[in-house]
Amino acid sequence: MSPDKKPPPGRSRGDRLSPGRELGRGKFAVVKKCIQKDTEKEFAAKFMRKRRKGQDCRMEIIHEIAVLELAQCNLWVINLHEVYETATEMILVLEYAAGGEIFDQCVAEREEAFKEKDVKRLMKQILEGVSFLHRNNVVHLDLKPQNILLTSKSPLGDVKIVDFGLSRIMKSSEELREIMGTPEYVAPEILSYDPISTATDMWSIGVLAYVMLTGISPFLGDDKQETFLNISQMNVSYSGEDFDLVSESAVDFIKTLLVKKPEDRATAEECLQHPWLEQSDNPACRAWNKSTEGETSDTIQKDADSASEQLVDAEKTGEEESIVTEELIVVASYTLGQCRQSEKEKATEQKAISKRFKFEEPLLQEIPGEFIY
């Protein structure tokens, strides 16, 4: 934008974001800390390549944006602030979670690792976030310590669920079968190419709880082949010194989730009623539950339902849908996926998105691009 040109209505040059240090990097994305110049508020900017292995993946990024839109009223899902687009990238400006990944505490020495009371509080928040997603027919499909952030490390803050790149919308009229996820956390039905459901997320939450409580990954083998074999054969232990400080109730909680048959696993709502979580040790958690009851809860649910309808409208692409994710897991190999969409699907989704996103002039000073949301 030239110095003489006015910013779009409702925005000022002070809204510009200045990118800073790198926070993380993946195969197709880089996350950098950035600061809003007029307020000095911190955000995390996720730079996502639109072309991956020669394929146009813009619509997959739009899907991730739509899911974040849907969950904007949920406390435990990362908040989407703005979206920009350049010729080669889309940039998601997200809430900054200063505490980083819970993975760091999961692998820390015992004195620095999570205490069970901490895991109870954080797990309840994770389940409330996942329950919200499941009520709106969204499955995350990549729940792991690296995708659960903390608002602060010391004192221990609240969770923020991130990275919806593998998420899918569950449609009652069709079965979803895809091979995706992270080896240690994938459910047996993914390895056997059986239908994916909300129960697939619940398996991952069981693995997550195990890791948070013990610091040990229950199915991890010397290689991917052994890891997959451990999962398919249910080779998991609940004894030994790793469980010396873990309560029987916590072990029982994990056992309700690490069940081979998806239909036999506890749902997110059922988990929230489990004796291990029923009595919260954290007053703030109880206060949040109380504040979201009654009229407030109704308001939130109405907002969620409205957002869900918009998302479903944007996701409707006819009877056929073929979206392949970044990471594919097969028993014999671990390869990168490609983005595939028919021209009909692209046209339908683009029409829906054009109604929801407003294109404006670039506002990132150091990063030229269009502000689109």
UniProtKB/TrEMBL annotation:
Residue numbers binding ATP: 46
Gene3D superfamilies named among the record's database cross-references: Phosphorylase Kinase, domain 1, Transferase(Phosphotransferase) domain 1
SUPFAM superfamilies: Protein kinase-like (PK-like)
Main location as per UniProt: nucleus
Record flagged with keyword Phosphoprotein: yes
Gene Ontology MF terms in the entry: ATP binding; protein serine/threonine kinase activity
GO cellular component: a single term: nuclear speck
Protein family membership: Belongs to the protein kinase superfamily. CAMK Ser/Thr protein kinase family. DAP kinase subfamily.
Full protein name: Serine/threonine-protein kinase 17A
Organism from which the protein derives: Ficedula albicollis (Collared flycatcher)
